[in-house]
TrEMBL record:
Cytoplasm is among the record's keywords: no
General function of this protein: Catalyzes the insertion of molybdate into adenylated molybdopterin with the concomitant release of AMP.
Molecular function via GO: metal ion binding; molybdopterin molybdotransferase activity
Full protein name: Molybdopterin molybdenumtransferase
Residue ranges occupied by any MoaB/Mog domain in the UniProt entry: 183-321
Organism lineage string: Bacteria, Bacillati, Bacillota, Clostridia, Eubacteriales
UniProt pathway annotation: Cofactor biosynthesis; molybdopterin biosynthesis
Family: Belongs to the MoeA family.
Cellular component per GO, a single term: cytosol
Pfam family, one: MoeA_N
Gene Ontology BP terms: Mo-molybdopterin cofactor biosynthetic process
Amino acid sequence: MLQRIELSEAVEIIVENVTQIKEKETVGILDSLFRVSAQDVFAPIDNPPFDRSPLDGYALIAEDTKGASRENPVELRVVGKLYAGDASLFELKANQTVRIMTGAMIPKGANCVIRQEATNYGSETVEIYEPLKAYQNYCYAGEDFKKGVKLISAGEKLNFIHLGLLASMGFPTIEVYRQTKVAVLATGDELMTLGTALEQGKIYDSNLFLLAARLKELSITPVYLQQTGDDVSTVAQKLKQALAASDIVITTGGVSVGEKDIFHEVLPNLGADQKFWRVNIKPGTPVMFSIYENKPILSLSGNPFAALVNFELLARPLLGKMSRDPAMLTKETIGVMAIDYSKKSKQKRFVRAIYEAGRVKFPEGGHASGMIASMKKCNCLVEIEAGNNGLKKGDSVKVVLL
């Protein structure tokens, strides 16, 4: 097992040891939101499938409007009316028009549409007050996209636009990769279940819900959520249950160097292949990564903010690889410090921060790894390189967006 490795090496080890989901399933398009497409989708028809009107008015022949004005209107005979959804059975001849509504099919023979405000709204005959050019106010069949064009590629994460495209082509279902199953196991004798009376020396278990909620924000619903104490046999039993129910197990607590940091015993007893322990970052140094029967086990620090840092930097690459979802990966940018930061750092450090209009500032309140209240307004982590002697207002910094 490797120890005290750099963050980049830890990410590389994780990605190398994760197998992508291969199983596929067909779901209704509404259920496919935020899922990853397992198929290429091609347009079976033009969109729109027919020439149509972009406005309410009259479909006519442009040549019939030559010289039209309010002082000298052109009068045309109205031979019918078309609403959106009507099949057009008309074929216009010279000096004829059809009353037409937005989205309706343009009849044969017509080559433009005049807006109703440029007419007298006639029903049997209509006065035209302005000349039109051929194909003015005219939406062509296939104007959005043509039959045969690729609308969705396998591997794309589906959003509301993708679903609209599928619906516009009449597809009720789509093939997607099955969802990644994630289990979360929080350990610690100090943890108490929500809704119970808090005992002396105990704390409520926030990590379980912090991580489960973060997973749901990333479109992953955890399949197993459990809290347990530090008893080795109980943790081993819960871990086996978590592995049986999931593709990935995320644990919190029990990975440092204390007497009750039980994963140093539980994982070897299980037969897990421990890939690394301790990454050269703060907070969250004692994070551990193991593989058991091709299933990743990512063991995070027990302190809430440290667990969050571990999750953002290590769990997201893991989840992104397994679920085939590049959107799962963290996004980075460069920000400019709006204030000074005097704390020196021997290790690479990640500090909670607020990124706004390219500028970075730190929230009021505590910044210790066990504190989460000041995270409420934060939307990023600022990466401070090892050996840094502090930051000055105006310095450029790397920002990991949350």
